[in-house]
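Session log. Operator J.P. requested a structure for one protein chain; no other inputs attached. Running the standard single-chain path with token output.
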Amino acid sequence: MTNPRAFIMIVSQSYYRFGLAFLLSILCAFGSVQAKAERIKDIASVAGIRSNQLLGYGLVVGLDGTGDKTNQAPFATQSFISMLKQYGIALPAGSRMQLKNIAAVMVTATLPAFAKPGQTIDITVNSIANAKSLRGGSLLMTELKGADGNVYALGQGNLVVGGLGVGGLDGSKITINVPSVGRIPGGASVEREVPNNFSAGQSIVFNLNRNDFTTAMRMAAKINETLGPDVARAIDSTSVRVDAPVNVAQKVNYLALLENLEVEPGDEAARVVINSRTGTIVVGQHVRVSPVAITHGSLTVTISESVNISQPSAFSGAGATAVVPESNISVEQTPLTNRPMFKFAPGPSLDEIVRAVNEVGAAPGDLMAILEALKQAGALKADIMVI
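Structure written below.
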């Protein structure tokens, strides 16, 4: 096989000479696509190339009386007064402002990797006090800072609010979605570039989205098969290190080639995932069950609430009407004769497990109990994960 650096030099020179079509033809010549294969760019990310979270505090103005209540959110008024001072406006001492058209907000954004000054990013504006709605408001210029305290973007613009809230004088109200949160597409301008080490070093490290020794080994083998022996090495179950050229332009072409190589990921571990809040149960394809017979009874608990009104006797002259709650609890157990026993054959597949459960008519809650009992008995060959 061709030496990787010499190979990249050929690809780079040919790219500038013949254009993008030559590089695409090289990519298409690396073999047929496997049925379950996935591109490296879909199962892994390049170490050091990451997005960064930005956060800022600001004010939204122009609300239609749905802003913060001054007596309950004094910091909103303080922020507004501080802003006025920056423009040479001094309020009389002791003046109390009742501003209903402003709201204190926190602004969040995600700064993509390699974002350059002058580019725009989307921002999300969240009310932090008691503003009823941000609909119709405009965000004033807000500094968005990173974890290091530096300002990386400036946000400003008109909010797009998907929620709606209306209320009546009697206290009744209707709320659709969340009106106290809005977005501004392209509402922040990038002011500072985040430094990265992409151009440094003579290697590239791919980090798998799902750590798996088999996938890491297959990725390294695929890269070595394409570019030559010992070009790629699996560091652990998550990372694969690949030798790369030092020149930045060549490294970009090199990475474009690598991320389009297709690798067949390793199979997932045998696992059963249970969501105890929604009753959702997901059984992986490699789950197996040893020979076992199961029967499952159920208890039905019914609780009904009622009230009794106790009144004093007529002309008693003492006592008062009282409301006394009364609870009726009944427990009913389904006879075991009505709950058929079902049997798992040796090593049933996922289809056979689902078919047996459907035949017995187990509800999600019953199925959770059955799976947990199977695990305790050592008959379930899988891990149970409760989320």
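Operator note: The longest strand covers residues 299-310.
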